[in-house]
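Handout, section 4.2: multi-component inputs.
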Amino acid sequence: MLQIHQFPCLSDNYGFLIHDPETGATAAIDTPDAEEILRQADAKGWRITDVWNTHWHPDHAGGNAAIKAETGATVTGPAEVERIGRAPDRIVDDGDVVKLGGIQARVLNVGGHTLGHIAFVFDEARVAFVGDALFALGCGRLFEGTPQQMWASLQKLAGLPDDTTLYCAHEYTQSNARFAIHIDPCNRDLQARIAEIDKLRAAGKPTVPMTLAAEKSTNPFLRAPQLKGAIMLPDASDWEVFADLRKRKDNFKG
Ligand code: ZN
Ligand code: FE
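Output:
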């Protein structure tokens, strides 16, 4: 059974350690803060055997070298991780299978935030690590990809089973919520979810992970097809509506 340990690091990132108790294999999903990740692994009594990167950004792959130097971990990730200094030991992309001890995960390319961005999907555990592709009530900024590409990536994630638990890499939820409710004010699921989110944050608790079902009913980016009327683009295609929503969010001063 897959064990997951989540902890905050840097200003608003989450670190994740995943562990297979059968074999002892332990992977850091991204490396925002090597020191903190090593400390957390120590505290759990887990030895890091692997690093799995979602994309090349420094707050995701910046700690690779330090963790590898300390533990000898094997780094698995998209080819673009080379931009941070060193190529992964194993380069993976859409359709590849990666293993944590005896537990299998599937790699999805979810490019858009960066071109090579990937997600790791544990089908059996119904868990996905989505990096900066999809956030609670938001999605990654389009630094490298096109809106069409990002829309297709989000559709891949939306196609997972509704009860999939999604682990995203940042606590951006309250800020995302301000945009979501601005665009989709009459959505009752969204209103109820924001009340929950505010309660969690007031108690110092994370809003990550989240379920895909909740995202599908409340995340404005996944709801692009339903929001055509709201943003007065009744005849636009889904990705065009997504593109417009993404641009609005980039310029939103909430
Ligand atoms: Zn990023
Ligand atoms: Fe990030």
